[in-house]
Amino acid sequence: MWYFVSPQIVFGAGALDAIDGLKGRRALVVTDGPLVELGLVDRVKAHLDKAGIEMHVFDGVEPDPSVRTVRRGAEVALDVGPDWIVGLGGGSAMDAAKAIWVLYERPDIDPAAINPFDDLGLRQKARLITIPTTSGTGAEVTWAIVLTDTEEQRKMGLGNRENVADMAIVDPVMAAGMPPQLTADTGLDALTHAVEGYTCTWHTDLSDGLCVRAARLVFENLPRAVADGSNMAARERMHNAATCAGLGFGNAMAAIAHSMGHVLGSVFHVPHGRAVGLCLPYTIEFAARTAPERFAELASVLGISQAGGEAGARALAARVRDLSREIGDPTCVTEMGIAREAYEARLEKLVDDAFNDTQVVAAARMPSFEEMERLFVCAYDGDPADF
Ligand SMILES: NC(=O)c1ccc[n+]([C@@H]2O[C@H](COP(=O)([O-])OP(=O)(O)OC[C@H]3O[C@@H](n4cnc5c(N)ncnc54)[C@H](O)[C@@H]3O)[C@@H](O)[C@H]2O)c1
Ligand SMILES: [Zn+2]
After folding, report:
1. Are 138 and 243 in contact (CB under 8 A)?
2. Between 256-268 and 180-199, two packed helices, what is the crossing angle to 10 degrees?
3. pLDDT in the model for residue 220
4. Could you tell me the sign of the dihedral formed by the alpha carbons of 315, 318, 320, 326, in that order?
5. Which of 57, 168, 288, 329 could potentially form a cystine with 7 if both were Cys, beta carbons 3.0 to 4.6 Å apart?
């Protein structure tokens, strides 16, 4: 038995207008400081004003939000008493909003313990709207929440189907101002979701099409969106791609590139999309020998290679690296300027945490502890994962 979970999705230029018809008294917008300065919160306020909803703002979300931040946000929510929580921003703000909403409804819950198995009983006090301002994480449509345990330098994959948003507003205008590097990094996150969602063992007939479509949209539009941020056609397709990929992997699973990327993020503060995009080709190569079928099939459907089997899978890995180079993203850890000594000093932690990361469970080829270590070494030096 499988579930397919999704918010109501309003998308395309002008989607923010959907706010105008909302019913409610107070909204708490959960976001970060730069997005206030960029005027994106004001845009949302203009629509909340039309709906007659009073806006309050919690703008304390940092990239890769911590449990502490979520607790602070929940205190604000308990103080304000909103009937709408609005997660406005990249994955960090949207994930924080999901967790703040859970704590607002259920102050008895430890955020690190939000899991898929308990009944949370949400929607007694408020409902959730997500508005992405990056085109990458798909967090607007997933029920996943990624929080960072800052003391342990560890990312935790949390979430419960109930905490999916009620409405996702996917308006490309909100992502139009992303600088090229952010566009590139977050676009690689969307591609990684699409590839991992398609190739993980939990993929389904309902998630497959979304992943294929998302991957195609990224290959076709990401270089254009990075090269010319004013290309709104490319921006819109990338915004849709991220949401498609979110629906795809969010109703299947991610895989090892996410396990590895999470720890590169929590230990070396590499932005999420850059980290998972860098790891993706190594994990495809790792699967190529013993479990190449789904990767080769994806390469074929996307018109990358008709070779099939291992060769097809390797062609997909090469195509991902080509895209990374084209948009100026690193293809190995050395290119990110992380010193070998620093990397080696943390290698055991990297391997250990990646090995224990929840995203690994549905990988096409399950790595042993030693194989995970070899993957991290290959990713550092830029050697193909040929084992
Ligand atoms: N819940 C999920 O399903 C899911 C999936 C993937 C990633 N994630 C999580 O999402 C987080 C990463 O999210 P992200 O990559 O979107 O980045 P982010 O939310 O961390 O934002 C990165 C930076 O970009 C800025 N920014 C955002 N939108 C902007 C815009 N339009 N213009 C200019 N600057 C802008 C932000 O202010 C911030 O400083 C990570 O914590 C990751 O683990 C969650
Ligand atoms: Zn991701």
Report:
1. yes
2. 140
3. 98
4. negative
5. 168
Looking up tokens 């590097």, which residue turns up?
181
Pick the closest to residue 296 from 195, 191, 187, 188 (CA basis): 195
CA–CA–CA angle 264, 266, 270 (5° rounding): 50
Q: Quick one: tokens of 136?
A: 């990458």
Q: Give the relative orientation of helices 309-326 and 293-301 as an angle to the nearest 10 degrees.
A: 60
Two structure tokens written together for 277: 């995009």
Does ligand 1 lie within 6 Å of residue 363's CB atom? no
State whether the Cα torsion 205-209-210-211 is positive or negative.
Answer: positive
pLDDT at 212 (0 to 100): 99
Q: Which pLDDT score, from 0 to 100, does residue 279 have?
A: 98
Residue bearing tokens 């502890």: 369
Q: Is 216 helix (H, G, I), strand (E, B) or coil?
A: helix
What global pTM score does this model have? 0.98
Index of the ligand 1 atom closest to the CA of residue 250: 3
Please identify which residue in the block is written with the tokens 């330098």: 153
pLDDT in tens, 293-345: 999 999 999 999 999 999 999 999 999 999 999 999 999 999 999 999 999 99
CB distance 34 to ligand 1 below 6 Å = yes
Tokens 């919160």: give the residue.
41
CA-closest residue to ligand 1 atom 6: 137
248-293 per-position pLDDT tens digit = 999 999 999 999 999 999 999 999 999 999 999 999 999 999 999 9
Q: Which residues of the chain are modeled with pLDDT < 50?
A: none
Q: What are phi and psi of 229, to 5 degrees?
A: -60, -15
**pLDDT at site 371:** 98
| CB distance 254 to 91 below 8 Å | no
Quick one: DSSP state of residue 18?
G
User: Whose alpha carbon is nearest atom 12 of ligand 1?
Assistant: 91
Residue bearing the CA closest to ligand 1, atom 2:
139
The C-alpha angle with vertex 362 and arms to 211 and 187, in degrees rounded to 5, equals 35
The Å distance, Cα 350 to ligand 1 centre, comes to 22
Q: What is the pLDDT of residue 353?
A: 96
* Any ligand 1 atom below 6 A from CB of 39: no
Q: Please give the structure tokens belonging to residue 191.
A: 């591609």
- Residue of 244, 283, 263, 253 whose CA lies nearest to 348: 263
Instruction: State in Å: Cα 63 to ligand 1 middle.
Output: 6
Instruction: Find the largest Cα–Cα distance for the chain.
Output: 60
